[in-house]
Amino acid sequence: MAESDRRLVQTAVIGSAASGLGIVLPQEADELRRLRRRHPAYTYWCGTQLGGCGGKLSDRLYVDKVCHFAHAPNASCHRRANGADSADHLFVKQDLARWARGGGIDARAVLRDQGSGPGDAVDFQVRERRQRVRFQFRRLTHPEWRSASEELQRDAASLDWVFGPGSAHPETMEEMYERAGHVLRFRFETQGVTRHVRIRAEEARRSTDWVPLDACAMTPEGLRVPGARRLTRTGRRPVVVEPPPVPSPAATSPRPATGADRRSGRSASPLVRKVQRLVGEVNALAASADADVRTTAERLDREAASWAERYGRLTGPDFWSGKATKMAAQGDGLAGRLEKLARSLE
Asked: What is the value of pTM for the model shown?
């Protein structure tokens, strides 16, 4: 008797085993029915660019549980990741290609296998200007990142790293703060059957808003995110660098300068460093956890960024009014919750 496929496969590619066109299957029956009506000719595959077996998949519709893709009975597949985020490297590649076409950039996006599969990293390479942006999915140790960074810089006029959840080691983050003034992060938002990348810049005391690629720009100095600051070559002081406007309806307006911007020369307090270190640890530990844990980690990440920004706005009078004491207590409470979650994941 044929054995049924019990794996909860949520992503596939469309058209062929070698396709790079990813899709997230709707989990609700009504949504899957609508997808079938709109695209009756779609065929789904456990794509090789997903690290899959290349076999054909069927879309299983259920009303009493989540819908999902399934392999043929007795299929042999050792694909490592099947969740809704398992095609994110394909989605960022699609977003980058569309962004480059819209901006008239002669570039290509290339998948990189660093030992775990084709979705370990995605390189965006601007040909004529020899510029590179690496979207890092797989977690790297600090020595691994150092080695990769040195290799990429040999033939690149500019190099930007954008780190996914849990992919940046705390030491790497510290070095990026010193080198560039901020760390670039990315995450994804699900929109129908696809997911789209969002980027922000994180500093020791503040973070920019999450924005789509359309709000960013490739400049001669590299990738620029609205509101992000970079260190000048003299004095090591951060300055605000806004990208030129991109003609896109999805572009997001740069955020106004905050008190933290005006006091950018102040070093981060030990409490801020502690919270950010814990956020990095939790993101790393939650990367391989279930969806509920990852959602909790992302919520704490956002809460920590918001708290650090508000803490960075404190001025001298705030300390006399007791506001600083209240904000520090909030930071201590946040650190405690992060530590508790980290212990539960270890």
From this structure: 0.69
Q: What is the DSSP letter of 27?
A: S
Name residue, tokens 């993101």: 283
Does residue 20 contact residue 50 with C-beta atoms inside 8 Å? Answer: no
Give just the sign of the alpha carbon dihedral 236, 242, 244, 250. Answer: positive
| pLDDT higher than 80, residue 172 | yes
- Nearest CA-CA partner of 71 in 46, 100, 93: 46
Give dist(CA 315, CA 326) in Å, integer.
14
**CA–CA gap between residue 202 and residue 30 (Å, rounded):** 39
Cβ–Cβ < 8 Å for 164, 136: yes
Q: What percent of the chain has pLDDT over 70?
A: 82
Model pLDDT, residue 233: 47
Bridge partners for 190 per DSSP: 195
Q: Where are the alpha helices (DSSP H) in 124-190?
A: 142-153, 170-180
- The pair of structure tokens assigned to 47 is 């794509």
The one-character DSSP state at 9 is B
Tokens of 307: 């708290």
Q: Are strands 158-163 and 183-191 parallel, antiparallel or unpaired?
A: parallel
d(CA 171, CA 188): 24
Q: 300-314 burial, b for 16+ CB within 10 Å, e for fewer? A: bbebbbebbbbbbbb
Give 239's strand partners: 230
- pLDDT grade, residue 4 (50/70/90)? low
pLDDT digits (tens, 9 = 90+) for 92-131: 999 999 999 988 999 999 999 998 899 999 999 998 888 9
Partnered with residue 59 across adjacent β-strands are 69
3-state helix, strand, coil in the chain (%, to 5): 35, 20, 40
